[in-house]
Design goal:
By secondary structure, the protein is mainly alpha-helical. 79% of the residues lie in helices and 0% in strands. It has seven helices and no strands. The N and C termini lie far apart (107 Å).
Amino acid sequence: MSIDKELREELRQVADSMHCPSDLYGRVQQSYQHYINEKRGRSTVKKRILAGIAAVAILIPSAAFAASYLADDIFGSAATIEQRGGTQKDYQEIEGMLQEAKGKLTEDEFKEYMELTKQLMQLKLKITNENGVKHEENLTQEEQQQFEQLASKLAPYFEKINGSSKP
């Protein structure tokens, strides 16, 4: 016989002759149950944390996308208004007007309203300096006619939105 087999046989005989205390089995089983319960609890917490991180990763970009302003379509950003002497409050008021218009006009009317308003606001920005003072003399004769045409085209929309024909 090889030495490995002899050693294995000797160890088996010694193990068979050993007697463990009866409460040892109970302690081992209790320790094993404690370990399993602890492990199960940790994995649940980890799964919940991962689920929370995934939810945040999905919700934040979608919220940012959903929060785009209608006024951004006209001005680009609030900074454009602020460069011309306006404030964030002015920008929010314009946004409120546009939201109200979106609610009161049909989809086609609103598209045309937005296009006309964008053209009108570009002309208004051109004549307004950084202090918010309007200088209508900065418009050419052609631009003044365009301004008047846009105001007259927008009048029916303003009447429909709030009962006033003033753009």
